[in-house]
Amino acid sequence: MHVSRILLSGALVVELFLLFIGVRVNNISKRAFTGMLILISLFEYLLWNIYAATNPVSDYKVLLEGAKSIVNGTFKSLSFDKTNYFYFYNFQIGYTTYLALVMKVFGEGLVWFKILDGLYMTLTSIIIYKLVNKISNDKSAAISSLLYAVFIPNVFGASIINNQHLSTLLLICAIYFILDHRLSFASYAGIILGFTQIIRPVAIIAIIASFLYYFISALENGSYTSWLKRFALLIIAFMLVIRGFDFALIKAGVSPGPISKDNVKYFKFVLGLTGNGVYSIPTENAEKTQVYYDLKTLNFDYNRYNEECLKAIGKSLKDYKKTLRFIVIKMHNFMGGKDNQYEFALENAKITEFINYLLELGHLQYITMIVFSIAAIILKLIDRRIKVDIISILIIGFMLVHVFIETQTRYRYETYVFLSILSSQFLERFISYKKYTWSKFN
After folding, report:
1. pTM above 0.90?
2. Which residue blocks in 319-439 are alpha helix, DSSP H?
């Protein structure tokens, strides 16, 4: 059944009304607005968790089982086994260690993980508010934080015990510190990015973005030594956290080697450029993926596997016409398709007609934010107000990275933060313009 566009438009009007109320409350009291933001976030995450009652599936289930093994002291039998998930996906050990720490403190009940994830998502909205206040104004800050808080794909993902909730909070905190000109804050950003990388290996994109931000800022301001010091401090702090965590895991016998060095280095690129593993053997489940079957074919010889991956990548580059067609289709689906987090959050029986309405609305929210973000950039170009913009750099970075690696629509998670920030700048300009226009007639 096709969803009524009139109903969806009405729901979007309700959202815009909520944004309007939020801006008015923020004008009266920032503290009241922060309270409003917290209440909206926690209420919707609680409501969704009660309805979805999500049980971990796929990788999420494997990671929780791995965390239990760490707590029980039996994880070594998994992480040292070359045929095991935690050996060929050794980068997942970082988040698994975090899950084990939560289990050690609170116990194995899923409710604790979900409460923490809800808090992380709520804090992300608050940090967005603080960050946009730093780079724009109060009105944009209120709009961006509310846009993120009521973004339906994220709400649907709130019941999934997922490393993206924590890693995105850490990422936006790091960006907040990067934008501060105090020298010591660069080291804080590096420390936070180090933990971001441990939880989910996306921090390298922020590292590159921070380098470009510092470099372009140095060109604009002429203070090369100052910006170089900031980036150097960030990198040193980042590497100390990464190396320190690697050392701790090896010393504790949790991992046979550093998790910052992937045992399977190129599989994401093979999947991203061809859509299949080296031998095109389909995935059976989270533990027996295409990577597992490729390794099994090679008797789990990791050196040979990495060599075969390089050959597959080279072959795809030679057959560039076919590869380019695949990438165009892949990126069209990745950027334009519906977020698939709900597939991990809901059993089929719970995907009702109303949920499908919400899915449509969530996709409409996403498309609208893209349009508003493009409009914000165009307005900056028209006004010739373009300066170095780390948010735009990060959006471009996340998009470019996924041109070459494996994609799923839920991997867009981090870009939702950046889109909410950019689109709020357009909405703020639009509201201010309408206010200015009406005032001329009064």
Report:
1. yes
2. 320-336, 342-345, 353-383, 390-404, 413-439
